[in-house]
Amino acid sequence: MRIYHLGHEHPLTSDIFADPYRVDCKVCLRRLHKHDEFYQCRTCWSYTIHKSCVHAMPHTIHHSFHRDHNLTPSLSKKFQSFQCFSCKEKFVQVVSFQCSECDFFLCIECALKPDICDRNEGQNGNLICHEQPMRVEEKKHEDGIQCYACHLPCSGPTFTCKTCNYFFHNSCFELPPQIQYPSHPQHPLRRHMASPGQSSITKCKACHRSYPFFIIFQCKECEFAICIDCTSLKPTIKHQDHIHSLCLMEETYKNSADRCDGYDTYCRKGVAINNEFMKYMLRCVECDFSLHLLCGRLPSSIKHECHLHLLALVDSLIEDDSEEYYCDICEEKRDPRICIYYCGECRYVAHLNCVISKVCSSFFFSF
Hints:
Blueprint: E1 2-4, E2 11-16, E3 37-41, E4 48-50, H1 51-56, E5 61-63, E6 66-75, E7 81-83, E8 90-92, E9 95-98, E10 105-107, H2 108-111, E11 135-139, E12 156-161, E13 166-169, H3 170-173, E14 178-181, E15 184-194, H4 199-202, E16 214-218, E17 225-227, E18 247-250, H5 254-257, H6 275-278, E19 280-284, E20 289-292, E21 301-302, E22 311-314, E23 340-343, E24 348-351, H7 352-366
Antiparallel strand pairs: 1-2, 2-3, 3-4, 5-6, 6-9, 7-8, 9-10, 11-12, 12-13, 14-15, 15-16, 16-17, 18-19, 19-20, 21-22, 22-23, 23-24
């Protein structure tokens, strides 16, 4: 008997497995055993499938992880690999469900699992999944388990759904169904589980990062969404270059960190900024205004454990005509054009690289 199967271009011939060599089914990836009924391509000999897997595979599926388009089964080309958007595993030359319009793949196991109840809530507003109630398991950092919501490692008590193999921190599991966000006061933001194919939705308006799977807070009226990490941002910092208060952010998306909207700043003057400062930004989420930490208003003084006295902010300091200037903490060269923290009584110099943690913490207490 010969058939055509969805995942392969050549006809397949029915047979009963009797050979001693190892052959794996291209769909379920399990090994064929003696007397198993299967179909095999006699043209390229690269496609073998259990008879039971032929009838189990639908012609097309619609999945919540990729709501824009349907997914159809297809066999990846020889030596061509793909990564499943759900389980993150890589596969080579096996059948997957993929989108013909996007670079989106789901392995067979993930594609045919019952769809996650991602838009539902329990009676107390908590997230719910397939298993109710979700089990709480003790996880260790070395287990390599990531929280589905925030993508950070799980350690300690973790909510677990064995059906879809998703894990949640206790704090992420108890995220409120709705929040009011200072930078978007006109509408409330509702908790939403984003899909990988919806890149315009899953991109966080605050830090500009996006992820394949992401529980975000989203405005139903506008294209405004923020990630879990950014829900705690508070615009409390005043700056002369912008009408709104700014919030301090760390680790914005790389292309965003390259942009600085200040006027009379180090960036505009062509002064090279250390990479340590590139990841710290002062942001107005409402206006999409960005300012490097070094280019913004810094605390006028700080107290650091490296020195007995307060250190005052100094725009520039040239101690002599040697053209070689150093930081007294790390004893490395510094650029005299860049501001420093300085004790005039002791002539003690600290460049910003070495006091960055104190500078950042001061923003939350000094403004």
